Amino acid sequence: MFKTQKFKVLLQVTSLAFVLGVVLNLFLYNSSVSSNIRKTLSRDGSGSLSRLISDGDDAQRRFPKALIIGFSKCGTTALRAFISLHPDIVSPLEEVRFFTLNYTKGMEWYRLKMPPSTKSQITIEKTPFYIMDREALERIREFNSTIRLIISVRDPIARLQSQYAHTFRNVLDPDDRPSFKAWCQGNANSDHVVRFVDYASHISAVYDLFHKSQVLVLSEEALEMDPLSVMKEAEAFLGLRASFTKYDFVFNQEKGFYCFNMSSPNYPNIINSVKLSESGCIGGGKGREHPEVDEDFFQELVKAIRPHNEHLFSLIGKRFDWDNFKES
Ligand SMILES: Nc1ncnc2c1ncn2[C@@H]1O[C@H](COP(=O)(O)OS(=O)(=O)O)[C@@H](OP(=O)(O)O)[C@H]1O
């Protein structure tokens, strides 16, 4: 009898020790997961810790559910940066170029390029060259046929000027670089130039592969003039809760475009995931001076490009009132 009681006590003590051990282990495991997340975040700075912790510890690197696929020189950097203000968006700082240059590195390589996110957040990646590459678009469809795609377009002549300014950004002496006209005609022959700004042909390829409802086409001009409206459009398109406000953006006279308002409640969401100047503007050589275009060549470009613009407007069912194409 005495022996049985002793055995029971022993059994109870052992069970208690076992339960305590399990609880302690779970606690240690959880704190190590949290500290791993913290370390990951502080190392790559690619997400807001407070956002993740407040949403529980389900943070992990997840594949993008939305992509900004083009067009280069159409405000895609500002677009990605502004969207990242949203508390339910995370996005890698750099262009990953997975579906073009890095495809052979494999899906796991791609996933590990993404910042940690919670289940309720959406990861967005921007690589503006995807849209110019049919094979990349096919790979995206194979990756996720229901993915959301965001495309920004711009006045085609302004885009060409922006590309020229970017190409020769390090050639300071004008004698050392071709004129804008020579660059358009030589470096890239006229057909090539028209193809570069023929948004319709590239967007048609997107519509061949994805349902139109998965694709949002925005304009760089709208983003420049009224980022809040563009962000609200993107927010609705991505099915996000309404979080953008007029306090998120401030117009910077010196830069000539909207920058981040560092006092807005959403501002902490982009710290470390966007490269900013001290004034809260997007750096990286945006807003370079555009080259002059000689009048005859300008008219030639307008004539060659206008039909492609009309094709674009009928394809996407919306018009852009581009300065260089206004009928006088
Ligand atoms: N708010 C804000 N901040 C910074 N930049 C802005 C903004 N809105 C539009 N833009 C215009 O974006 C143009 C650069 O486009 P991208 O970012 O797509 O260029 S890139 O392809 O990634 O190099 C760049 O064009 P350029 O002015 O020709 O340099 C910017 O004018």
From TrEMBL:
Annotated positions binding 3'-phosphoadenylyl sulfate: R154, S162, Y258, K286, G287, R288, E289, H290
Nuclease keyword on record: no
Molecular functions (GO terms): [heparan sulfate]-glucosamine 3-sulfotransferase activity
Name of the molecule in the record: Sulfotransferase domain-containing protein
Residue ranges annotated for the Sulfotransferase domain, each copy included: 64-265
Intrachain S-S bonds: C259-C281
Keywords of the record: Disulfide bond, Glycoprotein, Transferase
Xref: InterPro entries: NST/OST, P-loop_NTPase, Sulfotransferase_dom
Source lineage: Eukaryota, Metazoa, Spiralia, Lophotrochozoa, Mollusca
Catalytic-site annotation from UniProt: K73 (for sulfotransferase activity)
UniProt xrefs under Pfam families: Sulfotransfer_1
